Amino acid sequence: MLHLLVLAVAPGLFLLMIFYLKDRYERESLSLVEKVFLAGVMAVFPAALFEGVLLSNLSPRSGDISLLIYMSYLGIGFPEELMKFLAVLLLAYNSKEFNEPFDGVVYSVASSLGFATLENLFYVLEGGVLVGLVRAVLAVPSHALDGAVMGVYLGRAKMMGYKEGLARALVFPILLHGTYDFLLFLDPSAFLLLGIPLTLLVLRFALKSMRRLEDSSPFKTPTPQP
Hints:
Oligomer: single chain
Shape: globular
């Protein structure tokens, strides 16, 4: 049992540590990051209730593309990303600790990985080691990537006056999350052929965007001119 608990929890905490340490110029209060992470954990429950309403009496049926689209984007992606988004918006967005663009990434990833960690715990305790290993390299990093994209737009909205940032911080993670689930529901081979390349493209976008946010930090020491 202990090894399953470690396998379920470790991926989320490890990824959160990576994103937290990547905030080089003015690191966030650990207490607030912990609160947002725990809010992400708790967000699993209202998301599950919301999903239960949206997916009542539905199950994936082979060949029914419209049903798969509804389930993936509206039935799963929408409630889960909405609850992660609200956790950041309510706890961190208006905090004085949110004082540089990259902070949006830290808090959004914390919320997403809190959600992913509890969700992962349920799956791993039920499915065992193999499920835990697969989710450690696919599902948990996918949640983190959705959170990073959310955070890029929240950082732009809060610190850079990007008017569409709040809307995009919610819509884009829903689309990414829904696409991940849609391809898995459709056919695992479709995920390997399309989902992994798409994930790599989104990762490239997120990394480039995060570098720009870092460069925009008001705490970055200007490079001396020769």
